[in-house]
């Protein structure tokens, strides 16, 4: 953050007052402190100088003959939203001060002016502006880090939808396969919205036991269940003014989806064990692996939720359907890993890139990211060829599709069985939205045994 002295040297101040002695004394004093200062004798002139000078701070007299300060303020605030207006008056009233504040004035100072008071107000304005600039810089940096990388038409549409929905507070439904980038979409919506400086939280309905989802979201009152010795706020209440991403909404029981619908409608929440309604201010983004307008989504997602979000559905296509994004993502992830490891970005051979373009990436963008990290770890050279990619775990399209011919080409029965098992498990885990318990139940395996297989094959299971 810049020092106060540095801020003064860069700060421009305009004084609009019909009394020449006040203009002169205040201007000279502020110039002596290092500010760049201009003055205007009336409202119309002041508006013109505002436009030409583009000041950071404007001292504006209320009582002037040609155009009073309230009229100037009313016209100037929409035209110059970045200017901090400080009203000055010799015979102001509380009513006038309140009116000026509502229009957009920063502060109100009475005449005769105290230079100490003027300096203090300016110091507060500069501190506020510096904190605002620092926060904006951090947000810009964050937005760069969560950028949706790619050139496909499908991703361009997603970016356009994010820009559109970010301006509203309406609930959004983000659909797509595991690892396709739904989390990034949620983050982009939040950090492009007016809630960017508030909390972004998430709750994953696929990883939480169903009896805990309600407590996690809505909170619980002290004594409402055995062992609950203190009141606990839910995430919807805790993120006051922020955004909550409810991931894998299709895993939430219908009765809780109905409770969530009421929160969206009323912006009020009831903790478990309480009849009191608590006012909340939360924006909800829902995610699911289910495509909408299908029988499966109709069975798993409450029809009213689908109706509420029908104008704000963002579909993130799988990576195999947006091949144009693979090369930009390879470069992007390569740059990140190179920076993290303080090394040069590796060059992948033309044949290697072709092999990566042919691969179907069942784990989507997340799988590609993890694969690039493995390549950097396992390849000592700055040049990466096909055999390096295979060593890092890449298989060609024929093999990755699970075709019988590919498995027959393997040297041993054990190899073929292992490859089939891995492909089968990846597919089933995807079908169940990354929920390991549900996958184990579906395919008839013990959960602990499935976990051992996942670990042995290095399968990515984060949802």
Please provide a written account of the structure.
With 463 residues, the protein is an alpha/beta fold. The protein folds into 3 domains: 135 residues, Rossmann fold; 167 residues, P-loop containing nucleotide triphosphate hydrolases (Rossmann fold, 3-Layer(aba) Sandwich), CATH 3.40.50.300; 137 residues, Helicase, Ruva Protein, domain 3 (Orthogonal Bundle). It has 22 helices and 16 strands. The strands form 5 sheets. Strands 2-1-3-4-5 form a 5-stranded parallel β-sheet, sandwiched between helices. The longest helix has 31 residues. The chain is globular.
Blueprint of the fold:
Elements: H1 4-10, E1 12-16, H2 20-32, E2 36-40, H3 43-53, E3 57-61, H4 69-79, E4 84-89, H5 94-103, E5 107-110, H6 115-145, H7 153-166, E6 172-176, H8 182-191, E7 200-204, H9 210-218, E8 219-220, E9 232-233, H10 235-238, E10 243-247, H11 254-266, E11 268-269, E12 278-279, E13 283-288, H12 295-300, H13 303-309, E14 313-316, H14 326-340, E15 347-348, H15 350-358, H16 364-378, E16 383-384, H17 386-391, H18 397-400, H19 404-408, H20 413-431, H21 436-443, H22 447-457
Parallel strand pairs: 1-2, 1-3, 3-4, 4-5, 6-13, 6-14, 7-10, 10-13, 15-16
Antiparallel strand pairs: 8-9, 11-12
Helix pairs in contact: 3-4, 7-8, 14-16
Give the tags.
single chain; 463 residues; alpha/beta; Rossmann fold; Helicase, Ruva Protein, domain 3; five-stranded parallel beta sheet; 16 strands
